[in-house]
Amino acid sequence: MPHINAAAALQISVLLFALPAQYFISQWYRTDSAERIQVTERLIIASWSISARSYLSPEVWADRLKLWVSKTRSCLYVELLILHFRNWYYGENKTRSGDNEAKPHSYFAESTHVHSPKPEYIKFRVGQVIIHRRSGYSGVIVGWDVKANTLEEQLQPRYSPVKQDLKDTPHYRILINKANGFGKSTAYVPEEEITVVMGLEVVYHPDMETYFSGYDGSKYIMQPWLKKLYPHD
Q: Which GO molecular function entries does the Swiss-Prot or TrEMBL record give (predicted)?
């Protein structure tokens, strides 16, 4: 495919704009002043509608940024940028809707610091497919904390009085398999509530490609940016 520089792009834009501009001018001089005003109003309304859909929509910008990142995934800085943007934008929406899972990226195993060294008592690894023992849903691990990492007032209602000690055990962030029809898209659970399963390759979730590049037969393969956060998994 030939390379198009800025000058060539500008020339093409001018040529493409010339025909509709010529038509608009011809229509302008064929009408009286009242009709000219109506034509101008329709043009302004149509232009605003297109601009609002194309440039003022957060969803459109999020999709464009994600597509750009997919082409430059080897750059750690860019990967972290899209992760921060996604967590900020969608996290704000979830918080307003009352989802307790949505918190700043430093909570719920979403911290961007390098998890090294890895304690020996962390049993599971990022990329492994799990089954939740009580709820029965399947999913894939995308992060872990050595103990529950969130605000204390949010932890209290999560566990009964007899299970408050679970707060000090390893916790994992899970992308929940959409095929389960569970309703939630993510979970943050203690180690004792999940078990790893083998041979269950397919996990359907819209963020899978953000975190993983494939499957090696035993677990999902982390994207380079995620591997740098969990170098021992």
A: DNA binding
Structural domain range at position 69: 58-89
Residue 78 within a domain: yes
**Same domain as 64, residue 42:** no
Say if 220 falls within a structural domain. Answer: yes
If asked whether residues 27 and 84 sit together in one domain, one would say: no
Q: How many Å apart are CA 67 and CA 28, to the nearest integer?
A: 41
**Whole-number pLDDT of residue 52:** 55
Same domain, 216 and 139: yes
Same domain, 137 and 224: yes
pLDDT (tens digit, 9 = 90+) per residue, 86-133? 555 444 444 343 344 434 447 888 888 999 999 999 999 999 999 999
Q: What is the pLDDT of residues 140-190, one digit of tens each?
A: 999 999 999 888 777 777 777 778 888 899 999 999 999 888 888 999 999
